Amino acid sequence: MDKQYESKLASQCQGVARCLSYNNSHQEGEAKHTLIEAASALDKHSVRTHRKNDGILIINARGKSRYMTWRERLSMWLLRGKLEIRP
């Protein structure tokens, strides 16, 4: 799947979720929650990494960033830099 497509699809999911409310009905609340979770899952597939002085910074397609945990750094080292494993 193309990373730009995943990012655009995540944005669309979050846009539709923004129109829904948790307060109206149970089904609408569940739909909102599901769309937000789908957007988050799609965002995790397209990340960039940058080496900084205090660690490796991960930036997703939407610009949210965090530093890699020691487990993620160990996995990256074991996989020789390949951050993606898909069946």
Percent of sequence in beta strands:
15-25%
Shape descriptor reads elongated
Broad structural category: alpha+beta
| Sheet with most strands: strand arrangement | 1-2-3
Report the helical percentage: 40-55%
Report mean pLDDT, rounded to a whole number: 82
Unreliable spans are none
Number of strands: 3
Q: Can you write the helix and strand succession as a string?
A: HHEEEH
The end-to-end span amounts to: 13 Å
Radius of gyration: 16 Å
Tally of helical segments: 3
What does the largest sheet look like? 3 strands, antiparallel
> How many structural domains are formed by the residues?
1
Structure, explained:
This protein is an alpha+beta fold. It has one domain (about 5-80). Helix content is about 55%, strand content about 15%. It is built from 3 helices and 3 strands; from the N terminus they run ααβββα. The chain has helices spanning about 5-20, 25-45, 70-80, and strands at about 45-50, 55-60, 65. A 3-stranded antiparallel beta sheet has the order 1-2-3. α1 runs antiparallel to α2. The protein starts with a helix and ends in a 9-residue tail after the last helix. The model has no long low-confidence stretch (mean pLDDT about 80).
Give a nutshell description of this structure.
With 87 residues, the protein is α+β, with helices and mostly antiparallel strands. The protein contains three helices and three strands; from the N terminus they run H-H-E-E-E-H.
